[in-house]
Amino acid sequence: LDAAARAARARGIPTHILGDAIEGEARELGTAMAGIALQVLHVEVERLGHAQARGVEQLGERPVAEPDTVPLPTRGEIEPAAPGGRLWRRLAPASLLAFISALPFVLVGSFYPVFGHDLGMTAPALGVVDGLRGIALIAAGLSFGLLLARLGRRRLSLGSLLLMAASIALTPWTGGAAALGIAVLVANVGGAWVFNEATLQVVDRARPEELGTAFAVSGTAWSLSLLVAPAALGLIAQRMGVAATFWACAAATGCTLALLAAAQTGGDRAAGA
User: How many Å apart are CA 185 and CA 192, to the nearest integer?
Assistant: First the structure.
């Protein structure tokens, strides 16, 4: 990097080394560094523009650039078009994903213990099952960046919803502590991946000055799920049994999967057109 920077500076190109940690989270880190680079480049463009204007006033003619100097792009060329439309509409997909991603947490806290008790599990065993939620978060966090780079956002987001829906739907057919623990682990890993996709959607759909509000909206959707889902699922359990709560969550996740797939397909067609 130092050698490349020296070579660039020798050609008259303002060069800034932003970091050398390009591994692991390369995609996310590269996005953050690109944003910093755009800000730095914009400052350089304005500074050189003012310097050129002063040179014209002093010399009475436009300075001639060196033949090997690469011209800097204008601000319009380096900044992408800002997303349009009302913020709440742009954040609807991210909020839906955040809401759905909380369902495994709701089930672990409210209904997995009831189901495990029906299976004859002891209190310590139920505590271990609840602790698997933390292991799931660690596993999801460590693997998300790698899977994102290998599979891409489309496959990972749809696959996470499918994994989450399938594991929740199959939970009522688990016949013991080990099977229930696997179902809890898989569902919460999928839910964590879905929440990460919701976070990426917020970054995609909000302008830089809106990010604080945008993250508050998606976080509120996640918290709203923790508030509303237990009450709604409790009514379902009272009328139709505990197993129906898992199937209701699986159905909601499946509907979200279908909506996301349709939206991504529509976006691909629009991009192709």
Answer: 11
199/98 Cα distance (integer angstroms): 8
Total Cβ atoms within 10 A of residue 256: 21
Which of 210, 217, 115, 90 minimizes the C-alpha distance to 168? 115
- Is the pLDDT confidence value at 78 over 70? no
**Cβ count near 66 (within 10 Å):** 9
Q: What is the widest separation between alpha-carbon atoms in the chain?
A: 91
Q: What is the 3-state secondary structure (H, E, C) of 17-74?
A: CCCCCCCCCHHHHHHHHHHHHHHHHHHHHHHHHHHHHHHHHHHCCCCCCCCCCCCCCC
Q: Encoding tokens for residue 62?
A: 């436009």
Residue 206, token pair as written in the block: 């909000």
HSE at residue 14, side-chain half, CA atoms within 13 A, is 14
User: pLDDT digit string (tens) for 178-213?
Assistant: 777 888 888 889 998 999 899 888 888 888 778 888
Compute the distance between CA of residue 185 and CA of residue 174 in angstroms, rounded to an integer.
13
Residues 105-116 have pLDDT tens digits of: 888 777 777 777
Tokens representing 252 are 């909601």
What does the DSSP 8-state code read for residue 210?
A: G
Cα–Cα distance for residue pair 12/40, rounded to 1 Å: 16
Alpha helix stretches (DSSP H) within the chain: 2-10, 26-59, 75-78, 87-90, 92-101, 103-110, 112-118, 123-170, 177-205, 211-240, 242-272
Gyration radius (Cα) of the chain, Å: 25
Q: Yes or no: say if 178 and 119 are a contact pair by the CB < 8 Å rule.
A: no
Residue 121, classed as helix, strand or coil, is coil
